[in-house]
Every structure is written in structure tokens, then in C-alpha cells.
Amino acid sequence: MTEARGPLDGITVVDCTAYLAGPYAAMMLADMGASVVKLEPLEGDSFRELPGFFGWNRGKRSIAVNLKEPAGREVLHRLAKTADVITQNMRPGVAERLGVDSATLRALNPRLIYCAITAFGPDGPYRDRPGYDPVLQAMGGVQHLQGFGGPPQFVRIAVTDYYTGALAAQAVLAALFVRERTGRGQHVETSLLQGVLALQSGSVVDYPGKPTFLRETPTYRLYQAGDAQWFFLACGNQSFWAKLCKAVGRPEMIDDPRFGSWLLRGDNRETLMPILEAAFASKPRDEWLKILTDHDIPCAPVQSLQEFMRDPGVQHLKMTVQYDHPEVGPLTLMGQPIRFSDTPAPDAGPPPVLGQHTREVLRELGYKDGDIADLHRRGVIAGKDL
After folding, report:
1. Residue 123 and residue 36 share a domain
2. What angle, 0 to 180 degrees and rounded to 10, lies between the N-to-C axes of helices 238-247 and 285-294?
3. How many separate domains does the chain show?
4. Residue 279 pLDDT more than 70?
5. In terms of domains, do 250 and 291 share one?
């Protein structure tokens, strides 16, 4: 049996990012078989103290390097000469001041793909502002939309970060594909600002006479069953509407002109919602979920993430992995979310300890043990293996 290597086997990525979007992008590449070296400052990624760090940095090797020192920059320059991809999320201008910008590193290796992720883009009125996911949620309309006429609501999942990270990984894959044709790398970039807009592609649509989107559409919302447990009902078309009418014992509503479309049901929500609320209050949630499922109606219980991770569907897809981590002991993480039939990727491995692979990687770059000891003594590098 052929050893699983993944579609990006043989691709080397140097991940100079911190926080969430950039590390998540690089981890997606690691999940597909790329060899990812995470280059961190001596104090480590600023998000190392958060439990989520483990979930954004699976399958990487870590080296700790001070890029403010010329000898530290030389380490990155050596990495760039043989790397396929470099990712960084420094503020605009910082990479240039350090001498690790796209032009400098791509001059060392014309095949290099250099991916830059910023908060607001490399230029423009907000170029120099710091930005995190909730800042872009607030600016970008997400929190306003979640509030839907009431106080704005902060989405606890970092949707902007995750989506921007996915865009960055997508851009890198496209650039790798182009390189197969041209033999040349290129500079690719995205930002949290672009990410928060892209994830709202449907909401941005505007035209004369556009219908108002109603969050409280009666057939696409949360309901509380008779045992006070919540579930979501998602009847997204007329076929599901007809099935719902039968499931709740009101078949006469199928042809009721007041409820003849998604928009009409929204317009007449003050009439329809009390009917459905009363019906769903008559039985416990599990009983309603069985009835709705038996009628082929999309629905789901409201669960905690911990409950969902124990769900048979999650277990069937093997979406969790366990490691024995040297810092925290038994560690459960999300597994790989993509499968490849011909090039399955192996388990990428646990997230690294800060500087766990500094000596290992520097030896691969041609540094002798004496050189490594000198760099360590001068405060240029750090690591568990020094």
C-alpha cells in the first residue's frame, strides 16, 4: 500500500504569521501534506497563551528567531531560497523595514510565492491601523446584521479570521498551480477587510426593488419545543413548506395564499409564527425532531460544541484527533476537514512547542552546531532543542 503523502507533498511553507487568519491558512496547507515551518519571535506567537492556538497550528515545526537581528534575517533568507511559499501578516511596511519583504525574498528565489495578509490592505486610508476579527465584524456590518434591528451582536466564532485564512490558502494554491505553467512565483495578498466583505457576498447584493431580508422568517428560525429545548427549522423552499404543513397537522396551509412563498410567509409572519410556536410547544424537542426528520424536513437540535463532537455523524467522519502534547498532556483537536481519494494526506501531527525544531531546521539550512550555539548565545534564536 502506498504511503499517504497528501497533494502538497514536497511543498515547503515558511509561516511567519501570528494570531489566527495566517496560522489557519498555513495549517490548511499542512493538512494537505505541505511541510510547514512556523517562524516565531523569541517570545512566541502572541496567541500561544490561548487554547485556540493548538487548533490553528497543527502539523507545523516551530523555530524561534529574532528577525530584528541581521543574523535572524539571514535565517529567513536561507529558508526563502528553498521554500515554495512564505506567509506573513505583519503590518504594512514592517516587512520592508526588516528586509523580509516580497521583493527582497523573491529576488532570492523567483519561484517563491509570497502571501501577505493584513487587516485593511497594503495601502488606503486604514493601512496603518491594527485590526482583529471583531473590529472588522463591527465595521463590516456583521454585528449589525446579527442584531437585526436590536443591539449589535458580536459573533463569537472568528468568522472573518477563518474566512480570510481560507482565502489566503486558496490564493496560495492558485499561485502554485500557475507556477507549474510559468515556473515563476508571485506575490499574493488578502486582508480581513476583503474577507469580511467576501463572506457576505449574498448580503452585499443590491438592486432596485430588492426584497427586504427578514431574519424572522417563520419557516427558517429557532423554535422552543414543549420541554423548553431549542431546535432550528430550515424550510428553504415550497417542497419543504408542504412537508411542514403535513408534519404539524395543518395540510390546509399548503395552498393558503398568505403563505405561498418565502417572502409571503415573511410578510405574514405575525399570523404564521404563533401557529408554529403553538404546535411546537405541544411536544418535546426530540419528538418533534423525529417527526420533522421522518417528513424529510431540515432541522437540528441546538447543541453545545462538546455535544456536537460526540455526535455520530462527527464520529463517523473521524473529525477529532488525539495527541499526547508535551506541554498540556492529552490534547483533542479537530481533524482534517478535506479528503482526497488518490492523494490522502497523513495526520499532520500535533502543534509544536515554541522553538521545538530550531536546531533541526537550522541544521537543514547548513548551520553547524557551533554556529547554532553562537546564535543562541547572542539572543538571535531560541528553542527547546538548544
Report:
1. yes
2. 130
3. 2
4. yes
5. yes
More confident residue, 209 or 83: 83
Residue 227 has pLDDT above 70, yes or no: yes
- What's the per-residue H, E or C state across the chain? CCCCCCCCCCCEEEEECCCCHHHHHHHHHHHCCCEEEEEECCCCCCCCCCCHHHHHCCCEEEEEECCCCHHHHHHHHHHHHHCCEEEECCCCCHHHHHCCCHHHHHHHCCCCEEEEEECCCCCCCCCCCCCCHHHHHHHCCHHHHHHCCCCCCCCCCCHHHHHHHHHHHHHHHHHHHHHHHHCCCCEEEEEHHHHHHHCCHHHHCCCCCCCCCCCCCCCEEEEECCCCCEEEEECCCHHHHHHHHHHCCCHHHCCCHHHCCHHHHHHCHHHHHHHHHHHHCCCCHHHHHHHHHHCCCCEEECCCHHHHHCCHHHHHCCCEEEEEECCCEEEEEECCCCCCCCCCCCCCCCCCCCCCCHHHHHHHCCCCHHHHHHHHHCCCEECCCC
Give the number of other CB atoms < 10 A from CB of residue 101. 19
The answer to whether 286 and 294 are in contact (CB under 8 A) is: no
Q: Which residue type is seen at 70?
A: P
Q: Are residues 195 and 274 in the same domain?
A: no
Confidence of residue 206 (pLDDT cuts 50, 70, 90): confident
- The parent domain of residue 42 ranges over 12-202+349-382
Residue 213 pLDDT: 62
Angle at 41 between CA 35 and CA 46, to 5 degrees: 95
Of the candidates 15, 123, 161, 296, the residue annotated as catalytic is 161
161 in active site: yes
pLDDT at 55: 96
Q: Which of 307, 338, 369 is the last residue of a domain?
A: 307
pTM: 0.94
CB contact at 8 A, 40 and 64: yes
Please give the single-letter amino acid code of residue 321: V
Q: What is the pLDDT of residues 149-171, one digit of tens each?
A: 789 999 999 999 999 999 999 99
> Are the CB atoms for 178 and 103 separated by under 8 Å?
no
**Pairing state between β 35-40 and 12-16:** parallel
Dist CA 115 CA 34 (whole Å): 15
Q: Residue 1's pLDDT is what?
A: 47
